[in-house]
Amino acid sequence: MKRIRQMKRSTRNSWFTYTLVVAAFAVVQLLRTFQDGGIGAMLEGQLIPICAYVTMAVSLNLVVGISGELSLGHAGFMSLGAFAGSAMAIALQDTVALSPLRLALAMVFGAIVAAVLGFLIGIPVLRLNGDYLAIVTLAFGEIIKSIVTNVYLGVDANGLHFSFLSNSNELADGGAELIRGPMGVMNSQRISTFTAGFILVMIALIVVFNLVNSRSGRAIMAARDNRIAAESVGISVTKYKMMAFVVSAALAGAAGTLYGCSQTTFAATKFDFNTSILILVFVVLGGLGNMWGSVIAATALTILPEALRQFSNYRMLVYAIVLILVMLATNNPTLKQFFSDLFARLGGKRAEKGGAAE
Amino acid sequence: MNVMNFLNYLISGISLGSIYAIIALGYTMVYGIAKMLNFAHGDVIMVGAYICFFVMSGLSSAALPPFAAPILGTLVAMVVCTVLGVVIERLAYKPLRQAPSLAVLITAIGVSYFLQNAAQLLWTSSPKYFTSVVGNAQLTLFDGRLTISAVTLLTIAVCIIIMLALTTFTNKTKMGKAMRACSEDKGAAQLMGIDVNRTISVTFAIGSALAAVAGVLFMSAYPSLTPTTGSMPGIKAFTAAVFGGIGSIPGALLGGLLLGIIETFARAYISTELSTAIVFAVLIVVLLVKPAGLLGKTVREKV
Amino acid sequence: MKKMRVLSLAMAAAMSASLLAGCGGGTTSQPSAAPSDAGTQASDSGSSTATGAAFKLGGTGPLTGDAAIYGLAAYPGAQIAVDEINAEGGDIQFELRYEDDVNVPETAVNAYNTLKEWGMQISLGSVTSQPGVSTSVLANEDRIFSLTPSASSPDVIAGKDNVYQMCFSDPNQGLASAQYIYDQNLGENIFVIWKNDDVYSSGIYEQFVAEAETLGLNIVGNATFTTDTATDFTVQLNQAQDAGADLIFLPIYYQPASLILSQANQMGYAPTFFGVDGMDGILTVEGFDASLAEGVMLLTPFNADATDEATVNFVTKYQELYGETPNQFAADAYDCVYAYKLALETAGCTPDMSAEEICEAMVATFPTITLNGLTGDGEGITWNDQGEVSKSPKGMIIENGAYVGMD
Predict the structure, then answer these.
(1) Bridge partners, residue A204, by sequence
(2) Domain assignments of chain B as residue spans, ordered by start
(3) How confident is the model over A329-338, as pLDDT tens digits?
(4) Which of A2, A128, B122, C295 is most open to solvent, judged by the fewest CB atoms within 10 Å of its CB?
(5) Domains in chain C: ranges and CATH
(6) What is the pLDDT of residue C19?
(7) B222:C267 CB<8 A
(8) In chain A, whose CA is at the least distance from the CA of B284?
């Protein structure tokens, strides 16, 4: 206990997050193994998407929370990862028999594709700031969506076939269509597992925490807090912002592959502005720069719409109300004070004059 | 390139653009003063269109002079939307005045979900076919080879009137002065005795009334009304507002028109599949050359 | 600050946890979740289940969001059939539950899993194609028989012995449309406007073009739109006019189609418009000026204006309960439930059988039955063992605001 107190706050924070994720994983695995009927079909089916969304939230938090740039196109990187990764997984079907290895290779490929594009997009994007940067990321997200919608990719004995806008791939017998334009990927390989998802979340956390707690991470935060001051002490703001952006894109790409390889079918329209916004909601709700907050918020908000099924037609209405109320409860000074007092009273301690001391 | 076709495309670009422009006016006004991206703006437009639709179809059997029903419909829609805008502002945005802007953004998204789903429960998801407030009248040129619909002319006229009215309002009236002060510096405005909360509420009221007008004109031009009608033009108008320089009122008009024209030309001369991508690519290029939009003020960074 | 975050998150977590618990425990008290305002109708379905146990019939469809019109047509259609069957009080009784999938495959999987937890024995699959592909794979693995009312992509049934369709598949519609246009010699120069980001539309388009080539029809061009650009169609119409098209094929749903019709009218351009089953519903759009659709032709399995007793009965009930005229989604879903009744009777299934037993019985029975339903013509509806439906589409033309048979 004492040692925990003596730890640096950032170290404590990261270890808390790791413990949280490992514990959640262990509990779920135990329930799945020992409880009769597991955790129920509904939750079971959501495990992998939750891992993907958690990774997305953590990676977006790196850009929005740590680097301080509002990105509204994060789903675009997920899309790239999902399509590139699942195409890779199908293409490797015969060469790599072991499915976890195939998934790992696909994820690496998805991450690389997303990272390369993240770098290319980062060049223009990071020259801007504020809301203008936000709209340019939104623009790139939409561009990725409409381009991917028109990609046709097939594979047969003669190799890969690619066409754009209309399907002119003539595949030999035994060939498979990997990406079918507007229809996206049909009958993708469902090789993602919960364990793979857990490992990806852990990797994402380790990468992000190590980056944040390194010299580069401090440079990124310095650039966020005061660009001019950071520049004046010789920090190359663009370089460090780019670093955060590319790492975030790569993680999103890997999350996309995890997601793509867990779904039977997905199309480019899935990764639209609304999905980008959804991930941003996870990040803001969990707290900017707060990784375990992102983990919990992504999990809770992914389960929430499903948990609200008992409201039948009022489901999404209730979801909207909960979202607004939670935002108000966490951000309004009066409400915050109220809850803080309540919390303190319940805890039997003196209320810290918190709230205002952000 | 066929000249007549070119003109036709230009006209449809302008008519689409005028719709984006009128929505962007409301966006930009709220952004300029409250400094928040009100993602629920598109959904207020949808509510306005529904209100006008129901008033007009309720009055369709009554014996009224020809323009009474559309005018009444628009007025009722404006009143309802103003009230709605003020209520939303009070309940959802005002408590977050001191909060980081991202928190308000997310709340606005929550409000947007709420309005869409409430509309679906109230008015079902079946599309309604909106009757144009000015009928199907149109201006015909060159022996009918070129047509401009009355809705387009009306929309452009309304856009210009609103633009002038807003500019006059913000420049000449006391309230307008207060708004400009708030947009510059809320804290300083408060110290000067300006009621910042009230000013922002009035901004929302005006923005929502504009949304109702935009909804009516939007539906008159493209008459298919569903609960999700507002979300797509909402994003497009946001883009238009940034294009023209967010916060700038003439910028919204210019941005909207250009966006509509670029979209239409991209569709006509390049590719119908990729028109959205082309619009956004142009936007990116413009922002790289003019990082604050076409008419936006470039704020010098102070050390 | 820090503390508050902990607290609020804990609150959010607790809130969702309690909801989860409520959900798990509350399934028995689940009201039959009648669509929108059908509360009264749903309540008497409970009282009339005299024979006790009922088959648990589940389906997913978009009940909220952009595509909600389709889910909110299919669900009431199925509900009417279930209520009718339960009111008769025969051996076959149903308990119907629809879950919202927002037209997203991922959510559809969640909806399907919710139904599976509920104990679904037979499934109505999904209403729309993309979710249909994902739920049908699961239904195939879980051995739950699935008959989808309107998920028309061939990928929904491909390679799955226990997934059947009530609607025509998309390629079949493209094929039938091309043949119909060829046979009736409806147009010399054909232009296609289709929706580029939609599975349904692109499926029909691809097959239509292929078949038109075989038949030697002259396609002078095509243009697309997407969800983001589904407002202004003047460019596409101008292109069609420039290309000299006298027939425009619209493999799209009726909402964008209504905009296309009105904009063509504004331009003073009047080619023949030829639609597919998605066009059905255009006349029921509130406030739509039917004269715009004058002369529009479409191939549809269902005609709400038909005068046969079954259709009149269904349309009247639907209008009474939901205040709208049913479209083909509702009719297909209605037929699905009756197809199940027929097949379950034929196979002698009882509600105490497991989903898997019922599934095997259905797989054996479905290719043998012939259903006389609302959709299809007098020949009845049959299926092959691949799950493909065989019923003939009706060629309709809109005259004076009503469908008139073309043959």
Answers:
(1) none
(2) 19-230
(3) 888 777 777 7
(4) A2
(5) 34-168+311-390 (3.40.50.2300), 171-300 (3.40.50.2300)
(6) 43
(7) no
(8) A136
